Amino acid sequence: MLLSRLLCLLAATLATTLSAQDLPGLKVTFTSAGKTDVRSDRLLALHVPAGQAPTPFLATGPFIAKWEGDLQSPLRGTFKLSAESSGRFKLSLNGQPLLDGPGIKTVQLNKGANRIVAEIASADQGDTFVRLSWASKDFPLEPVPPTLLTHPADKELDVATQRRDGRLLFAQMNCAACHADPTLLPAKGTGMPEHGQIAPLLSELGTKFKAPFLADWIHDPHSIRPHSLMPKVFAGAGAEQKAADLAAMLTQGATPKAGAVDLKLAPQGGALFANLGCIACHQRPDAEGKDSQDRVPMGHIADKWHPAALMEYLQDPAKHYPATRMPHFRLEEEEASQLAAYLLVNSRLVKRQALAGDATRGATLLVSAGCLNCHAGMPATTQPTLATVLKAGDKGCLAPDDKTRATAPDFALTAAQHASLKAFLATDLASLKQDTPAESIRATPP
Which of 20, 47, 89, 298 would bridge 285 by S-S if both were Cys, CB 3.0 to 4.6 A apart? Predict the structure, then answer.
């Protein structure tokens, strides 16, 4: 038992002292029908259901997966390595064959890097699966900890990761909502799950959000929430007025949701904020400055929400945004009230000086700016097709600066995101037509 605890402590220390050339996870190379794809996986584990492709960049059919990297053992000692698999699995350790098919073997691990090479061929029938575990006399069989699996920097893997990141970004930014092209893209509801997801519904905005905040959000969402997938739609002279006009239209005639939040419940809400693990994704509402973990800021909550609407949202985050990544915690009304109180009391109330908006002009902008392409899932109106975008190069949304971008939406892309999108757009885009659960559920090292 003592060794098991010591291993955990040493593993945590080892994870922070690895060479700059050592990256988390193992490199995995997939080969099918003469084509290859690579990625990094945090565990030596795989499950590909029968009839599905192992990655979105390969077609369905027989494949071989090969893992390469190192098992970084904190101690020199005797361990057991075990593989559960669908068969046709081989593993070598430090250049010596160890496992051939499912089984368990006793092995001496060196302190530090132990070279691992493993391979599995897809099953002729049924699912293809494998999972590598280990054990010792001091702890029972368990998956090899991801903190102990590493691989060296690899150019091929960098290129593949960039392409993968671009694919996800293309879907999350909902590029196809404006730049439709039935010859290149899958139909809605098919292919990659993230493709074609509808942005938050625009109904009842005025009952939930305060108009001055909404105007500032439309004008520049990234100034409020860095990394937001919502673009800055209006640019140049009059952009702020257009945002105010659109906000006026979206909140016209709305009455804030009735009800109040008892702010005295803030202490209980703070405990709930901690117990639910909100801090994993969100900053504390009283946090200031840039967050090193890129968590979602919460300092604007009191400035954004009508209190009763915030409480209702916390009870059902997906009501107006089915694609949200915010979990449904099944909060009771009292718990939602406590959490809302904590967020409202501790966030900063900004005195926003929004321009007076014209709802009539806003109604025109709602259509002409393409808002409904994303927010209501309607066909694109004035935007060029994807084929046209691909020929245009670094223009429009992909432009590197405001001047070249002109009136196109500004997604505030980083240089890395821009490069990833370009890398993905250089492919045939066929990967968008594949729903690949084996890819979706994997946990990619940061």
Answer: 298
